[in-house]
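Plasmid replication, integration and excision activator structure dump, as promised
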Amino acid sequence: MLDFNAPSRADGSKPQQLDKDSGLPLWAVQVLDSDPEPSKASKTVTVKIAPAHQPVPPANEAPFPFTPVEFTDLTALPWVDISGSRPRIAWSFKASGARRSRQGRQRVEGGLNYDRDSRTA
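structure tokens r here:
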């Protein structure tokens, strides 16, 4: 994520935004909700993460066209959006990191959840 409030570098680029609490670089992760019920506007959200190292998306091992992930230390912060014709409550999501979903690695075999990593039911 670029820090648009910071002064530009000599080459004209903007520095990466830093987390106010940890001082670590912030990364923006676009997340898709696969539930068919939400409205179109709420199907995609952005989660800001501040891991110690540059995040690398996990490989997709799920039977879906997207990779299920879990966020660590996820917090939802409400704020008031006054950019429209009337104020509304909006949400900002922040996490310390992301990893492959443990639930996404499971599949049902014979009615049991079978974890491919440990090969135990």
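The chain is about 0% helix and 35% strand.
lmk if u need the other ones
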